[in-house]
Specification:
Elements lengths: L8 H20 L3 H24 L13 E3 L4 E11 L5 E10 L6 E3 L4 E9 L11 H4 L2 E10 L3 E11 L6 E3 L6 E2 L4 E5 L3 E7 L3 E3 L6 E2 L5 E5 L1
Antiparallel strand pairs: 1-14, 2-3, 2-13, 3-11, 4-10, 5-6, 5-9, 6-7, 7-11, 8-10, 12-14
Helix pairs in contact: 1-2
EC number: 4.1.1.65
InterPro entries: PS_Dcarbxylase (IPR003817), PSD-A (IPR033175)
Cofactor: pyruvate
């Protein structure tokens, strides 16, 4: 399925299969109560099947980036943009941008800038609602630290962090430490609602604002000066 994330294929097949089998049993079961039970199951899993196709959609995205620009890694809404001290990934002051992904956003994540993966930090945490500030600190997360060669022979170190939410309980990351990755490349997803945080150098100039709706692999968040 070209426009469906491969991580969702299992959910789609299972929900369709259960719906189909329940519908067949509805016709073969004589007991009236069981007939309505199987009919209800068939309808519920049919709805789940349709929702999974929608949720795991993976549209093609292409954007031409200018030098040192940062591509948005997730679909959703910008809920936080501020200078902070990051003591978990970069160990210094950074510009933090948080993007909240609702159940209705595309959940495939994309690389924000070309570079080499220095380190991946996974933490099995809790599951607060992803739009809360404490979700960044206490929820399950998968953080990728990336070194990028930018203009002037400089190396910019950034971090982008997949964070599970209240419903999302499964983070998928397909890249590994030492990988060379390119801006716009798919690197994973978070199932059923989530959040993604970016930690950028202080010389980052933002094009985006709080509450902006942004799109992975399409929206340019800003550039490194």
């Amino acid at each position: 399925m070209k426009y469906i994330a491969k991580e969702g294929i299992g959910f789609i097949i299972v929900s369709l299969s259960v719906s189909f089998v329940s519908f067949i049993l509805y016709f073969y079961i004589g007991d009236k109560i069981l007939k309505y039970v199987f009919l209800s199951l068939s309808l519920i899993f049919l709805i789940f099947f349709i929702f999974n196709i929608y949720f795991f959609r993976d549209p093609e995205r292409k954007t031409t980036l200018k030098e040192d620009e940062i591509l948005c890694p997730a679909d959703g809404r910008v809920i936080f943009m501020q200078r902070v001290f990051d003591d978990r990934f970069l160990n210094r002051e950074a510009v933090k941008i948080s993007i909240f992904m609702s159940l209705f956003n595309v959940h495939v994540n994309r690389v924000p800038i070309n570079g080499k993966v220095e380190k991946i930090i996974y933490n099995k945490g809790r599951f607060f609602s992803a739009n809360l500030d404490k979700a960044s600190l206490e929820n399950e997360f998968n953080g990728i630290i990336l070194n990028s060669n930018i203009s002037g022979g400089r190396i910019a170190k950034i971090a982008f962090v997949q964070i599970a939410g209240l419903v999302a309980r499964r983070i998928v990351c397909t890249i590994r430490e030492g990988d060379e990755i390119a801006a716009g490349e798919r690197f994973g997803l978070i199932k059923y609602g989530s959040r993604l945080d970016l930690y950028l150098p202080l010389d980052f100039k933002s094009y985006a604002r709080i509450n902006d709706r942004v799109f992975s692999g399409k929206t340019v968040l800003g550039r490194l000066l």
